[in-house]
Amino acid sequence: MKISIVEDNKTYADVMRQVIEQTGSFNWQCTYRSGEDALVNIKDNLPDILIVDISLPGITGIQLISELKKKYPDIRFLVCSIHDDDDSIFSALKNGADGYILKDSGIDDILNALNDLIKGGAPMSPYIARKVIGSFHRPIETDTAEQLLTQREREILEFTATGLSYKEIADKLHLSNLTIKKHMRNIYSKLEVQNKIEALKKSRLL
């Protein structure tokens, strides 16, 4: 199985490469330092599994996964990140991540995650898995986002579901960053939620 990584932290990328090469079970292909680098060059060496960090210079790992999933649906994407917040987790899964592990995972956990992906599984760090399971235990809402939100608010929420930042949404809609934040506050208030991921779930965009 061919493995590549998108990681701007050279030390971490080098450690991952060393660990994977020593197993003898995987073939290391490429290290990409940014999402843009991967978008341009991955076609030359398509991996079976792409390990992706979320916090990258330029486009985010979530945006990268979303773009590559459309072009190369057979690639399996494993997020390996320090981020354990709801927004990062569910946005990554919504946009095509096949697994999500934390960077403080042990070597055995990382290798087990890669093997799970090969077998068709969806590996997650225990903390991430608990968050995902917990999301199904929340009550179903009666009012829909379509009834509660304006057209502009629904449009902004849809952009949010793709992983775009407030600034990127503002640029697309030719609005100010402050205006986008104001709309998001209104969305939270109308949907009676506290963050983006809860808003996306309640609006059925997740």
From TrEMBL:
Keywords for the protein's UniProt record, in alphabetical order: DNA-binding, Phosphoprotein
Coiled coil: none
One GO BP annotation of this record: regulation of DNA-templated transcription
SUPFAM superfamilies to which the protein is assigned, alphabetical: C-terminal effector domain of the bipartite response regulators, CheY-like
One of the Pfam families matching this protein, by short name: Response_reg
UniProt keyword annotation of DNA-binding present: yes
Modified residues (4-aspartylphosphate): D53
Zinc is among the record's keywords: no
Domain HTH luxR-type: start-end pairs: 142-206
Domain named Response regulatory: residues: 2-118
One function term, GO molecular function aspect: DNA binding
Descriptive protein name: DNA-binding response regulator
Species this protein is from: Solitalea longa
Classification lineage: Bacteria, Pseudomonadati, Bacteroidota, Sphingobacteriia, Sphingobacteriales
